[in-house]
Amino acid sequence: MAPPRNVVKIAVQMRDAVPQLIQLDQAKPLGAVLKEVCDAWSLTHSERYALQFADGHRKYITENDLEAERLLGGLQSGSREGRREALRHLVLLASDMTFAQEVISRDGLQRVGTIIEDGDDLGEVLALGLRAFLELMEHGVVSWETLSIPFVRKVVSYVNINLMDASVQPLALRLLESVTLSSPALGQLVKSEVPLDRLLVHLQVMNQQLQTKAMALLTALLQGASPAERKHMLDYLWQRNFRQFIYKNIIHSAVPLGDEMAHHLYVLQALTLGLLEPRMRTPLDPYSQEQREQLQALRQAAFEPEGESLSADRRRSLCAREFRKLGFTNSNPAQDLERVPPGLLALDNMVYFSRHAPSAYSRFVLENSSREDRHECPFARSSIQLTVLLCELLRVGEPCSETAQDFSPMFFGQDQSFHELFCVAIQLLNKTWKEMRATQEDFDKVMQVVREQLARTLALKPTSLELFRTKVNALTYGEVLRLRQTERLHQEGTLAPPILELREKLKPELMGLIRQQRLLRLCEGTLFRKISSRRRQDKLWFCCLSPNHKVLQYGDVEEGTSPPPPESLPEQLPVADIRGLLTGRDCPHVREKGSGKQNKDFCKRAFSVSYARGEEEASLNFIAPSNREFHLWIDGLSALLGSPMGSEQTRLDLEQLLTMETKLRLLELENVPIPEQPPPIPPPPTNFNFCYDCSVTEP
């Protein structure tokens, strides 16, 4: 008779004892199982023991254990070697949530903190202490705000001195980054204690890990600063040629740019562009003498000054006419700039263009002044709308995403990058206006084309402004039309009833192909990033489906290594134990993060697999590296669970396959022999009297 399904055989081993092979009843309380195992070895106080997986990351199954007590005793050892071994073992086990809670409940965090504060060994012991402290804090059991000021100052001292051990300072920088992001008060302490010059020193070393962590702390300090402090800090960094260093030694380094560094460069770009937001949100003040002088300077730079003998009325009339030629829609140009956004940022762009590209500015204005009124490209109106467009494309004023890596290399290759980009874009707009032979009524259509030109070129990530200028000017109006037509043809389908009927017949077969592809993709596996309590990407783990489609296999991997073979992965989740699939805000790890705007990207790519773990329900939580990977995994897991595959990617793949298969079927080539040689040309007819004139009436 076969044993019940909830009874499995497992081997239990203990140091200096004969291993046991027991029948584990999964319905029995774990405490009772532990007591039976301890009784077999004649051990008392079974509540002080725990079961631990022997393979992989050796995670604990129960909460109370002697291992935590033994390790904490080792941390207080008078022997340096004893502390080193205890810390090394703690680092390996601290990633387990249950074990970490047990260590923290026994004041283990304070003991590790004491080792860090004492700083008796600035080498491996300190590095292991910092790593163990970070691992324990990552679980979010203890708030970063509870750290003491002396402790933070001690960690700061490790950043500010020259250490021989290269592994200490990246860990110290990582700890300070977490403190800065989590506690405004302690973040101010870090800001006052860590000079910007010291971070610049760390950024200039050849150690990529140290560079990345220094950049992480720098962006954390910038995010925690007030707008005025942030501007002061960025101005100081630019004066120290920080931008040029990033462009030459990080972006164009021989070492590939890591995902974390790409994220920090994105944050740095977003924060720098964010300095434009106050100008973008501020309307022009008609009573400001400085702003009135800027408007007059725009007019005077475009037109020859008239004689000084003009009366006041004539001069006002002349000014109003010239401002209209500049493209202002109101006789008082201040009214055009009252709109926010772009507010004063549009005026800044126009003034910058007139001063730094005076010949191009004069040519733009005079060229359009000589056209018919309805064919003029209005400079001021175009500049105002173009500034709004650039702010939207570059997300000026939007909060930083916590996972995005979409920075533009040319931003770091150019001073005043936003204004320089405007100078290129306004000349592109004039060029596109002429190519479209546009009139005033076509203004919105021209802006749509310019938006597409700029967006397509920015997506190519040109490495310099000159390369951007070359690429965007090559994307003419005709080329945009061609690209649109090509994309439209790819998306077009026919709605004829016979074709719709054929497509419906083909769908089951093609959905089977898609299902097969999704399962194969799950078998190949994917590298996922863990999201820490700081809501940032830190560690990697790999998950794949077994070839027989019965088990999900997963485990942690080191960054930079190739995906491990499935048989080496320590953790397994039987597909039969999966209860459901959750996405977006229904996921446990998304609910813990809250519902702020900054979690938008995080939420879109989050999914969880809920499964039974004893009598409790647990979940395996994922953050997909891309939207496409998210759809592939959701489809594959849905297929495993017998649910329909309803992702957007499935819809696109099905549509593509249906279009291809329909076109092949319409060719009707199944029983048609295709000759290798073309057929011969027939001889001409004997006469050509086969044209009938319908206009001639027969008698």
Strand content: 5-15%
Global geometry: flat
**Rg value:** 34 Å
Total number of β-strand segments? 9
Give, in spatial order, the strands making up the sheet with the most strands: 3-4-5-6
Mean pLDDT: 85
SS-based class:
alpha+beta
Please describe the biggest sheet, giving its number of strands, its sense, and whether it closes into a barrel: 4 strands, antiparallel
Q: How many separate helices?
A: 29
Q: Distance between termini?
A: 103 Å
Protein model, in words:
With 699 residues, this protein is an alpha+beta fold. The protein has five domains: 7-49; 62-122 and 132-140, no CATH class; 143-256, no CATH class; 283-303 and 318-487, no CATH class; 523-626, Pleckstrin-homology domain (PH domain)/Phosphotyrosine-binding domain (PTB) (PH-domain like), CATH 2.30.29.30. Helices cover 54% and strands 9% of the residues. It contains 29 helices and nine strands. It has a four-stranded antiparallel sheet. It has a three-stranded antiparallel sheet with strand order 7-8-9. Strand 1 (7-12) and strand 2 form a beta hairpin. The longest helix has 28 residues, at 497-524. The protein starts with 6 loop residues before the first strand and ends in a 32-residue tail after the last helix. The model has no long low-confidence stretch (mean pLDDT 85).
